[in-house]
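Researcher: Before we compare anything, I want clean individual predictions. No alignment, no superposition, just each chain on its own. First chain goes here; please echo the sequence and then give the structure tokens.
Model: Echoing the first chain and its structure:
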Amino acid sequence: MSRLPAGRGPGCCSGRPLPPLAFVGNPSEIPAAGATGTSARGPAAARLVLDAAGGILVADAAACALWRAGGRELVGAHFSTLFAFEVTSEEPGWREAQWEVLLGAAAGGPFRLVAEPQDGARRDVEVRLEQATGAAGPVWLASVRPLAAPGADADLLAFLGGRSPAGFFDLNFKDGAYFYSPAWKRQLGFAEAELADTFETWRARLHPEDSAAAPDRATTRYFSGARSFSVEYRLRHQDGRYIWFLGVGLQVFGPEGEIERVAGVQLDITERRECEEAAIEREDRFQRLTEPGPLGAFDLDFAANRYWFSPAWKRLLGYQPDGLIDAADTLATVLHPDDSAAGLKEYFLARHAGETAFLDLCRLRHQDGAYRWTLAGVFRQVSRKGELLRVLGFHCALPAELPVADGPALPPALLAGALAELREGLVLTDAAGRVAFANTRAAELLETTPAALQGRALAEVFPLLSRATGTAVAFPQERLLAAGETVAFNTGHLLARAGDAKPRALAFSARPVRDDAGRLIGAAVAFRDPEELPLTPDELVKANRGELLGGLAGRIADHLNNLLTTVLNSIAAARTHPDAAILQDGENAALAARSLTRELLGLARGGGAARTTLTADTVLTEAARIAAAGASAEVRVAVAPGTAAVQADRGQILQVFQNLIVNAIEALPPDRPGHVWLRAANVVLAGGQIPPLAAGPYVQFEVQDDGGGIPRENLSKIFDAYFTTKKHGTGLGLATALEIVRRHEGQIGVDSTAGTGTTFTLFLPQAGLAADVEARRAPTMRFRTGRVLFMDDDENICKLTARMLESLEYKFDITHKGEEAIALYTRYLNVGRPYDAVIVDLTIVGGLGGEETFKRLRELDRDARVIVSSGYDSEEMAQQYLDMGFCGYLTKPYRTADLGRVLKTVLG
């Protein structure tokens, strides 16, 4: 039988031997009471040996570390002095009474106390006391295990599991426990209570063809341990359709290679899959058109030294697909000598100078040696230095009866057969703007016949409406035929239709046509339905919005964590050191988090149909709040005094500046502090100063950074959709910004110097109206009127709101479900004392929600004043419920002043 060595601290330094214990060897080997090792649930337990009266005989290193004490400081102290109690006393016998209470609590098993280390940092602990018998009498063995405090990460995970668009799942096959987050169930169209947390829920929803790719299936045999996975699969929605998801997470395998657990997160990728399938369909159509079809396509990438000619192009000249090599010289050798004498690049640069895309006639040498006329459609890419980088296009055969090169001019009717193959509508006019030719597709888009279009004026053929305002606008015929200017490809118009038919979206470009002497002889207008573009303008904006959210998610999460840390620390500090300044810091952080989530929701929703009047400072400040969240760069906003407001779609115009700010921050070098400057000022533009803007007053915005700049060869391409130099970019940001700015009758430009930085300049028309300002009343804390019925299924919110109502001196009742609220309202209505106001939460788990409760209350009492409470901070949603008949909208989180203000407004 071993004995403990004698202690050296107060109470045991006298050399009095400790009682021998049958299971104790030395202090470092004292086992935790009721345990055999370190707990898997938290830090290692502190272990102490106590005498019968609660005095400490021995304390191990973990105990010294927990109470921040030296090796001898704890020995001799009373066990009860190590903890914080709500009630203390210096009266004789008080410590003995505390010891008896602790022994009584220990009889029921482990119990919780608050340890009070010497540095004052209190900590929740779990205490076990077990008795042991020694030679000198009974002693007590104490085990004190610190409990891990819940942190911001856990709160954030709970928030994300319930509110984020990502669905979390945990399939624990080993223990038979399964979990699906509320967001996971909402992805499939269900409320949280409508789907059971069972494996059958997963199996019943999984598409039969995707069973092998599901995350609960192993793709490799004889594997043990944990392994990450990333798979795509389909789950059946409540409405019967299948939704595509991307699932990522971990698979845990047992020793025999069987899956024991799968945990992960899934994201809805249906839209992405649909885009991919649409792209495959477009590629298939292109191949059908260019391989067995009449169009011979080609791609000459001079910058990359890559060249391609489709099989149809080679057949057009009488060759088999392997009869011609894919090289630049291939086209040069078949062009007529009169056209190719200066070289292939010079041939393409000389045709239709100043135009990116054009149609032309050219002669190509057939295998039989004869030159034949073909119609060429060409798109060329030229650097800022004027160098030809790339040419894409097609050649199409013309009818055999066309005259040879030196013959008379070609009448439009002879081209109809070839032009009918084009998917764009094509209208050719004379110098007076009268239609001389229209292809079949043009007639289809204009809902008429080619013959009916002959002789009509362009303004009559194209009755245009502004896509932004719906008002009639003139076709730019004067600019096209009088000034001889090219009308760039644009999507900002609608085509008015006969009768009550809905206007049709229209994308068009136009250019003047000149003869060999340079005289203007007519115009060509090419147009199409924007729905046939790879992405429509609205889809472009939506796709970029998703990319912007994804790119900002990490920085925003970090910023929210910082704010939550401030809130939690303020609360913790206020518990021990009540201080209004500390609480104010926490409240300011909470309000900043609320503002951040509001802006995040606004970005996720995008724009609405209506435009509002916004100050330049509002636009720049709110855009920076989201785009610069969590960034290390210094972002400065400078708005000149007297700068006018602009009228814009709030969501869309913020998206423009968020794109520009994100680009600016990402362009900053990582090895030094970076800066981004946001500026705004009034400017008056002269006609033609910033094409195509009309003369008048504008607000000039600038987004400037001191990053590395944009290479000159990329400046002409940065606004093209899908052009990007980022490793994981999509090339939609600046294309979206340009589309939105043009919708707002504005323009955007860029100036960049390598090694110095980049400045984007935007011009938006001045609104001429005062900015929309939300009327705000000073918060009043005391009203002393009314009886209120409050309904929410969150117990904490109920408690907090009850305190608020009590501080406002309202009488109130609290309910947790709609059925309870209706019963209470009915009871008091029957005795002639109805509630003055009812506040209802929208979503109630396991009971009637706010909307259904409101309808029932209105059936009981037409004068019921019902206020809706929701965490969705949206003006559109608030207006929706006010239009429904609710008397007020209370946004969570709210303070006492917010609650009082809404009640005062409703109760008058």
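Researcher: Okay. Second chain, same rules.
Model: Second chain and its structure:
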Amino acid sequence: MLSNGNSKRAESDNLLLTVFAFACIYLIWGSTYLAIRYAVETIPPLFVAGFRHLIAGGFLFGWCWWRGLRPTRQQWLASIVLAVLFFLIGHGTLHWAQQTLPSGVAALLIATEPIFIAIIVSASHRSRITPLLLSGLLLGLLGVGFIIGAEVRTGSSDLLRSLTVLISAASWSIGVIYSRTGKLHPDPRMSAAMSLVAGSMMLLIAGVVTGEGAQLYPSLVSLRSFLSLIYLAVAGSLVAYSAYFWLLSRFPPTLIATHTYVNPLVAVFLVGRLAEKS
């Protein structure tokens, strides 16, 4: 048994890890919307998503393998399902939409994730919709309606991309619920690595199938796009996604999804700061 001092130290360490993990998904993921916008300027969107997850997933999987972790066939199948929801649909559509959709708008639309999670959880009879939850859902839907309605009234060509981001949020929400019941690897780092690797392969194949490979010219990739891709791989996928998976194994999905409320603030703040400097 742990002594009283060791127990308090363990609790303190766990608290620090929790604060760090939430800070990662609140702040880092909030900054990735702008990084995605820069990356897709000269790199096709599916290849941006594929490369960032391949770099992060390959490194993390290699580290887990070196530590002696070995996935089973069943765990791979579960990771592939999760990769379809999180990355092929979730990130593939988001990266495609952000070719023209402002990063702040994309982040606001992704904030519908808690709404989708609440609906799915309630529909599966895991919890009931309380008056407080219902008011929150209605407020969130009102916000989405305001954004979509503004684009319809102005005839914006980004309407389709906005709807695509909503599909991204819905797919990610289904993935969150699936991650609670899927037969994933018990170690959250290996689970994250496996889904990243599987997702990257799907995204790169999708990029080739949809003809994006013909639009990829390494010599024309700007320094800003390249550095944004590296940032997305290291900070967004390796660090933040690992933190996200660690949180998924410890906290309710509705609590973790609160990052979508903070991410738009970070995204809009960064855009505003850059606008001041330009």
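Researcher: What stands out in the second chain?
Model: The longest helix spans residues 4-39. Additionally, The radius of gyration is 19 Å.
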